[in-house]
Design brief:
Largest sheet of chain B: 6 strands, mixed
Structural class of chain B: mainly beta
Oligomer: heterodimer
Helix content of chain B: under 10%
Radius of gyration of chain B: 13 Å
Order of helices and strands of chain A: EEEEEEEEEEE
Number of helices of chain A: 0
Helix content of chain A: under 10%
Largest interface: A-B, 29 and 23 residues
Shape of chain A: globular
Number of strands of chain A: 11
Structural class of chain A: mainly beta
Number of strands of chain B: 11
Radius of gyration of chain A: 13 Å
Chain lengths: ~110, ~110
C-alpha cells in the first residue's frame, strides 16, 4: 500500500517564477492538505482540498493556489515566487469529513534564488 | 494573541531514561491535540492523538497527557533509545477538520 507521494523531491527556481508541486494521497484517502515548513519551524497550514474544492485556507496570499483531481491527487501552485517561499512543502492526506490522523508525504524542498 | 509553544528547542538525555516534552498553548480551545515525530528531511509521522475530554493516552513506550485547564500537553517516552532521536512536534486542531496548528518542535537526542 503506497503512502503519500510527492513530486518533485527538490526544486530550484528564481524570483518571479511560478512552480507546481504534486501530491498523490494514501490509498483510500479523499482529502489533501498542504503545509509549508520553513527551516527550524513547524509546518504551517496552507489549504485543504476535499471533493475537488478548497475547504479551508490558512493565512497565505492568493499567489498560493491549488487543485484536486477526481482521483484525489492534488497540485499546489505558487506564482511570483519570493525568496521567502523557500521551504519544505508537505502534503498530508486523510479520510472522511472527520479529519483526525493525517499522513504526511516526504515533502518537496523548494529553493528560490 | 494565539500561541503554541514547545518549551525546549533541544533536549538531551541518556539512553534508558524517560524523555518528557512539553507543549503549551494560549488563546486556543482545541478539539484535540496530536504529537508527531519528524526525522531530518522527512515528513512528520503521526504518533498519538488525545481529545479534549481525555486526560491521558498510551501507546507502547509513549504517553501523552492533556490538561485543558493548564492548556498544556506532556509527551513522555519511557526507556528511551538512540533510535528515538528526532524532532517531536505538537499540533492542535480546533474543529476536527484537519487544519493543524503546529509548534516549532523539540529536537530530542538520546545518547547511548
Amino acid at each position: 500500500d503506497a503512502g503519500v507521494t510527492q513530486s518533485p523531491t527538490h526544486l530550484i527556481k528564481t524570483r518571479g517564477q511560478q512552480v507546481t508541486l504534486r501530491c498523490s494521497p494514501k490509498s483510500g484517502h479523499d482529502t489533501v492538505s498542504w503545509y509549508q515548513q520553513a527551516l527550524g519551524q513547524g509546518p504551517q497550514f496552507i489549504f485543504q482540498y476535499y471533493e475537488e474544492e478548497e475547504r479551508q485556507r490558512g493565512n497565505f496570499p492568493d499567489r498560493f493556489s491549488g487543485h484536486q483531481f477526481p482521483n484525489y491527487s492534488s497540485e499546489l501552485n505558487v506564482n511570483a515566487l519570493l525568496l521567502g517561499d523557500s521551504a519544505l512543502y508537505l502534503c498530508a492526506s486523510s479520510s472522511g469529513l472527520l479529519q483526525e490522523t493525517q499522513y504526511f508525504g516526504p515533502g518537496t524542498r523548494l529553493l528560490v534564488l | 494573541s494565539q500561541k503554541i509553544e514547545q518549551n525546549s528547542e533541544a533536549l538531551n538525555i541518556q539512553e534508558g531514561k524517560t524523555a518528557t516534552l512539553t507543549c503549551n498553548y494560549t488563546n486556543y480551545s482545541p478539539a484535540y491535540l496530536q504529537w508527531y515525530r519528524q526525522d531530518p528531511g522527512r515528513g512528520p509521522v503521526f504518533l498519538l492523538l488525545i481529545r479534549e475530554n481525555e486526560k491521558e493516552k498510551r501507546k507502547e513506550r509513549l504517553k501523552v497527557t492533556f490538561d485543558t485547564t493548564l492548556k498544556q500537553s506532556l509527551f513522555h517516552i519511557t526507556a528511551s533509545q538512540p533510535a528515538d532521536s528526532a524532532t517531536y512536534l505538537c499540533a492542535l486542531d480546533m474543529e476536527s477538520q484537519g487544519n493543524l496548528i503546529f509548534g516549532k518542535g523539540t529536537k530530542l537526542s538520546v545518547k547511548p
